[in-house]
Please model this.
Amino acid sequence: MTPLNAADHFTLMMDHEVRKSGLAGNLCALVIELDVCPDKDTLSKKTRSFTRRFPLAVASLKKTGRRYAWADRNEHPNIFFHYPYHDAENSDTFQTQTLKKIINRKQALEDILPVELHLIEGEEKSLLALRWFHPLCDAKGIELILHHILNEEHDTKHDNTPVGLDAWLAKQGLWKKIKFAFKARNNIRQLDQLNSTLLNPADKQTDTLDFQVIRYNKEQTANINTQARQYAGMTGTALYFIGCMMRTLETIGCDHEGDGFCVPYAFNLRKRKALFPIFGNHVSFLFSQASRKQLQSKQQLFEHLKEQNKYNIRNALDFAMLPLMEAGSWLNLDRFGEIVRKNPQGTERSSFWFSYTGEIDPPMTKILGCNVTGLFQISPVTAPPSFGILVSQLNGELTISYCFIPEYIPEEKLTQITKRMSLELMDNT
Amino acid sequence: MHDQIKTFITQEIVQLENPDSFSSDDDLLAAGLDSMGIMRLIMFLEKTFGVTLPDNEIEPDNIQTLNRIIQWVERHR
Model:
């Protein structure tokens, strides 16, 4: 049995919350677009080799006492799936519908394969989709998994030495952890003084996650990156996307108007360029929050968000969240979810979900001789907020994947959001 | 305050062989007060006595005995 770390438990709690919202669970996908279809037999062989080297990739989640762990399966399942394209269908529709089926397939917790590789053929491009169950790894981890599937590197560095998040927690003394946990809690209490604005209060039955990908060419991406540097500074790219989306939602109007916007965002605890650890979530998280008044001036908004971020880092609030997650991992999933998601008034704390992964690392231009022409991600959301954005970049071209629950965010509203967001990003309002 | 905190500690946090003999200067950490217990205790103190206890004051000196806990809470009322 391989125990889940504190952040893995956090994502498992989110799986529970996503399921309560009617969706399939905390199933994410990294989707790579290729100019032609790679050889499926080679991919199948590479995938089998990967799961032999890394048996955790086919483990099954089991409850042990109050916590969860990965358990070996008796059989060795196939994790590679191939979807041939037939000329009679519209290629884009076929690929999108197939992806939607993959991320909306409902399964019992113990039946879910931690990683699946799906090859979806098409007329002009093929999609390689790595679907992963979030308690297994974070967004960085799935990039590393893709690297290890394709490169068949030997696992030479896995021993019992704690790494990433586990190493940090193991180094802290009891009193420091408790101090940190309360520091984090006090920060969240402070945030809870503002009620969060939500696109939709979410009161219908639902069972489907949908997504839409908006792509920006090199010129547009360069423009957006310049604006990000001007408004949010050299290290504030993620803040730029968060702030622009806050302003977008404020402009188009939300059904549940609160006092401001509050957005959680994760950050990577691995050493830069590290190829290990592959498995486990090695992230902590912080919140960006702005009042509706602060949103009126773009300049002032980003001065505020930068200052908030500086304060959070200076006070180690990023690391302070880890002991809080560790304490939460001993609670039952329902209770943990309620504490994480809701403010004391019982309102959802997150105005939308957000992820920024930047350029894929290690860099990737070809897969099995095929050119990589695009990349995007898919993530589930809870209802509310029923809406999330995932920002990625490949070879200087930005993609924003809008993930949403269509019952709450109708097509017309989504179009308004994506158009306004583009204007905000390019400072063209 | 004394009785409320004592009852909470002896009934909810630390399993004592003989709760009646528990004194206000007994070492709670030696008696088995662990990290989860400390967190629950602080949350109880804040909720029951309407105080916010600063995270930089969460130290053995303020939590080791019932008397010290009372003094700590009193300083923030």
Notes: Chain B has a mean pLDDT of 91.
